[in-house]
Amino acid sequence: MLLLLLLLLLLLLLLLLLMTTDRRELLLVSLLLLVGLLLLLLLRVIRVLRQTDTWWRVLLLGMRMSGSDASA
Prior knowledge:
transmembrane, 0% strand, transmembrane helix, membrane
C-alpha cells in the first residue's frame, strides 16, 4: 500500500515537472509531497509500535541512540 502511494506521488511529481516551468513552484510541491510521505511513514511506524507490547523499549532505545549520536 505504501509502495503504491509512493509510485503515485512520483507519477504526480513527474506530471508536474512536465507541466510547470517555474522551478520554485516545482521545488515547493516536491517538498510538500516528501513531507506528506514522511508523515505517512511515521504514522505507520507508530501504528506498528503501538501494536507491540514493547513499544516503549523501542522508543527508549531510539532516544538513547539519538543522544549518543548527538554527543559524538
